[in-house]
Design brief:
There is one protein chain. With 467 residues, the chain is mainly alpha-helical. 61% of the residues lie in helices and 7% in strands. The strands form two sheets. A three-stranded antiparallel beta sheet has the order 3-4-5. Strands 1-2 form a two-stranded antiparallel sheet. Helix 6 runs antiparallel to helix 8. The termini are far apart. It comes from Marasmiellus scandens. Keywords: Cytoplasm, Lipid-binding, Membrane, Transport. This is Sorting nexin-4.
């Protein structure tokens, strides 16, 4: 196990994962990981700490109960880890999609301050034909679930969750799910005065009155990042549709245009008996190039678009944490205002009872309350004393609630600052992976295209044209 002053993170450097780098003075943490040399005296108070590594994978989708109406797909989830919470360094099990849903939903409940990635949505499978048991669908979902677990494994808190451990190790997962729902970790949710107050006061239109500049800058950075992802997705989708949208009649399928051009050149070769062979070779090259474009779309562009949108949903989860932090601050501000109002009412009643003040000068609201009390016959001192007693009790409860809300808001802010550092690490790693795969796919495409065209050039050059 690594020391508490050592950070571990996978793939945040720009070194190749195939060539991991380890510090000689540290215990190797595992393949693909590089440990930080920053000591605890140099680390900031909001810097995350990784206690070890967790490398996850999702493989081998299998259709279970294939001949029944209850058929489903299971996936082999496995991991390599040195985290002490795991009982084995190589846990594995088979899980279905609903198990992933349970894992994600309960991690959100158990760790509200953590950026828990979203699961793949069904609407993002527009490039896949066939039903949910088709090989294309199962492979696309496997990749999405693989990316989901990778994001969990890169999080220093989520990777050490007992629910994550059970997800990989438990042989009685359904029993564990039932126990987790029946006895969730953490304090029991409370209900009472404070909950009723916050439910009444807070609404979707409330705004934090004293925003923290740090979190304003974070939200601005998130806005710019998501704007860039959305624009990139739109442009690459347009490029993809113009290259190979699968509909030759759309007039924008470049692969179909190359195919039609190949047919036309082949027909021209039958008319030009002297150069039939070179033209046929040229036609075949056009067909090969058309197939190469379609292959690149399927193996490079489509996965890039899927990863791009997945990263966008991951950023939405990060935005949700920032919004929840604002909600915690808003709880504190609204409770403080409510406490001030109750205290003012208590002081007003005390002044009326002591004869130091009447309704005059205490505002329209106080005057109206006095008039209503007079009509109801509750304007005598005995009624006012009873009201004061109840207000004193409420003030005590509110003071405790305000103190708790303030502590909760501060603690949540600290956790959010750590989460932003963790998300930044994860974002850098995924951007490197996503753009690296795109670059590799484009390089492979252009190399193959150059080879195809270079083979045809000598044949074209041997054509002799009499002038």
């Amino acid at each position: 196990m690594l020391g508490d002053d050592e950070d571990v993170f996978d793939s945040v450097t720009w070194d190749s994962p195939a060539d991991p780098v380890y510090q000689a003075s540290q215990t190797p943490s595992g393949p693909g990981f590089r440990q930080s040399t920053v000591g605890s005296n140099e680390a900031g108070p909001h810097d995350p700490k990784w206690e070890g590594y967790l490398i996850t994978s999702v493989k081998d989708p299998v259709k279970e109960l294939a001949e029944t109406k209850d058929a489903y797909v299971s996936y082999l989830v496995s991991a390599k880890t040195n985290l002490p919470i795991f009982s084995t360094p190589n846990p594995s099990s088979r899980r279905r999609f609903q198990d992933f849903v349970f894992l994600r939903d309960n991690l959100v409940k158990d760790f509200p301050a953590c950026v828990v990635p979203a699961l793949p949505g069904k609407h993002r499978l527009e490039y896949i034909t066939g039903d949910r048991f088709s090989p294309e669908f199962m492979e696309r979902r496997r990749l999405d679930l693989h990316r989901f677990l990778q994001r969990l494994s890169r999080h220093p808190t989520l990777q050490r969750s007992t629910l994550v451990r059970a997800f990989f190790e438990s042989t009685e997962w359904h029993v564990h799910m039932h126990q987790h729902v029946a006895h969730p970790p953490g304090p029991e949710p409370s209900s009472g005065l404070v909950d009723n107050i916050t439910d009444t006061l807070l609404n979707a239109f409330s705004r934090v009155r004293k925003p923290d500049e740090r979190f304003l800058n974070m939200r601005e950075a998130v806005d710019k990042f998501e704007e860039g992802l959305t624009l990139s997705e739109r442009l690459w989708t347009r490029s993809r549709n113009r290259t190979s949208d699968g509909d030759p009649e759309s007039g924008e399928d470049l692969t179909a245009d190359y195919h039609d051009m190949a047919v036309a050149v082949q027909g021209l070769g039958f008319l030009e008996s002297g150069i039939t062979d070179p033209l046929n070779h040229f036609s075949n090259t056009l067909l090969e190039f058309s197939a190469l474009l379609r292959h690149t779309t399927q193996t490079t562009t489509d996965p890039f678009l899927t990863h791009l949108h997945s990263l966008l949903t991951y950023s939405h989860a990060n935005r949700a944490v920032l919004k929840l932090r604002d909600q915690k601050q808003l709880d504190f501000e609204e409770l403080s205002d409510y406490l001030s109002g109750v205290t003012a009412e208590r002081d007003r009643l005390a002044a009326v009872i002591s004869g130091r003040a009447g309704s005059t000068g205490l505002g329209l609201g106080a005057y109206l309350r006095d008039r209503v009390d007079a009509i109801r016959g509750a304007d005598d001192d005995r009624s006012r004393v009873e009201k004061m007693r109840k207000l004193d009790i409420k003030i005590k409860e509110l003071q405790d609630a305000v103190t708790t809300a303030h502590e909760t808001s501060d603690a949540f802010s600290d956790e959010t600052l750590r989460e932003q550092t963790i998300f930044q690490h994860a974002k850098e790693a995924e951007m490197k992976e996503m753009l690296g795969n795109l670059a590799d796919g484009q390089i492979e495409f252009y190399k193959a295209a150059m080879e195809e065209w270079e083979r045809i050039i000598p044949l074209i050059q041997r054509i002799r044209v009499d002038v």
